Amino acid sequence: MSFLPSNDRQYLENRGLPFEEVVDASQKGVILREFQLPPGRFDTEQADILILLPSGYPDAPPDMFYLLPWVKLVQGAKYPKAADQAHQFNSQKWQRWSRHNNEWRPGTDGIWTMLKRIENALEVAA
């Protein structure tokens, strides 16, 4: 079942990012498979990233994102700030990264905006 807007799907395909659209109960999620993490920053080099799409997307913004496997910072061997809670999706416990989105522009933003936010959050994680 495909629920992503075609411009979102095209963006992910053009970037060469393997992804899967998954429905779990009433939640719709996009899973970016084997996403490369910033080198030397975490205790693993890649992870799956889950983006939950709210009802009303793309006019309503995605909020947090989730990783599997759970990652810790190399420096200090601890979870990043606000990334130590679990979220159940598709029979798995994902690492919730609580990063809220207050700057979404309905009609302009899409999955590319969320991906930039995720990449930034991974770069500056402390």
Features:
single chain, 126 residues, alpha+beta, six-stranded antiparallel beta sheet, 2 helices, 31% strand, plasmid, UBQ-conjugat_E2_E, E2 family protein E
Task: Provide structural commentary.
It is a single chain. By secondary structure, the chain is an alpha+beta fold. The protein has one domain (6-124). The protein is built from two helices and six strands, in the order αββββββα. A six-stranded antiparallel beta sheet has the order 1-2-3-4-6-5, with no helix packed on it. A hairpin with a 2-residue loop joins strand 1 and strand 2 (27-36). The longest helix has 14 residues, at 111-124. The radius of gyration is 14 Å and the shape is globular. The N and C termini lie far apart (37 Å). The mean pLDDT is 95. Pfam families: Prok-E2_E. Keywords: Plasmid. InterPro entries: UBQ-conjugat_E2_E.
Layout of helices and strands:
Blueprint: H1 6-14, E1 19-24, E2 27-36, E3 46-53, E4 65-68, E5 85-89, E6 92-97, H2 111-124
Antiparallel strand pairs: 1-2, 2-3, 3-4, 4-6, 5-6
Uncertain runs: none
Coarse morphology: globular
Round the Cα radius of gyration to an integer and report it: 14 Å
Oligomeric state of the chains present here? single chain
The tally of structural domains comes to 1
Task: Give the amount of beta strand, in percent.
Answer: 25-35%
Ends distance = 37 Å
Broad structural category: alpha+beta
- Number of DSSP E strands: 6
Main β-sheet, spatial strand arrangement: 1-2-3-4-6-5
Order of helices and strands: HEEEEEEH
Roughly what percent helix? 10-25%
Most strands sheet: 6 strands, antiparallel
Number of helix segments? Answer: 2
